[in-house]
Design goal:
The protein is α+β, with helices and mostly antiparallel strands and 161 residues long. Helices cover 40% and strands 24% of the residues.
């Protein structure tokens, strides 16, 4: 009887340890997914301003070297006819949840933002630093290469080669 009781206790402890480990792994996965954003989740996401007004939807993302640099927002028009595509620096956006991204700008100011036509044969050259700086300045943010002294680090890197 004592052996049976010991076996039952050991099995119960093992079960508790397995369940605890599974719970911890599940928590780590949900924590990881809460801090990581996927392009497929962002594309199609509604963009709202701080007043709760809908500004548009993210239709695309631009990538430069090792990072996502701009979200392309479809704004205006009806049923995607006559809408403008507006590049917004990623660091100007705040991701609220899987369905909403926030941008601190009024609808009136967004109407004057740098934009291009969806069906235009000539899209902006997002690798052009002047274009990127001008667009970032419109939203009051630094270009990604100037954040955290990255510009200084790149200049230092150039001088050592």
């Amino acid at each position: 009887m004592r052996k049976l009781t010991t076996i039952i206790v050991i099995n119960m402890i093992a079960l508790v340890l397995v369940l605890t480990g599974a719970f911890a792994a599940d928590m780590m996965m949900s924590e990881r997914s809460a801090t990581t954003q996927w392009a497929s989740n962002l594309i199609g996401t509604t963009v709202k301003n701080l007043q709760g007004e809908t500004l548009g939807k993210i239709t695309d993302l631009t990538i430069s070297k090792d990072r996502v640099t701009f979200a392309i927002i479809s704004h205006g028009g009806a049923l995607e006819i006559g809408d403008k595509l507006i590049p917004v620096p990623m660091n100007a956006l705040s991701i609220k949840d899987d369905k909403t991204v926030s941008l601190d700008i009024s609808k009136d100011k967004l109407a004057t933002a740098p934009n291009f036509e969806k069906n235009s044969k000539k899209w902006p050259d997002f690798s052009n630093r002047q274009y990127a700086e001008d667009t970032c300045r419109f939203y009051g943010v630094q270009p990604y290469w100037k954040e955290c002294g990255m510009e200084h680090m790149k200049e230092k890197e150039k001088s050592t080669h």
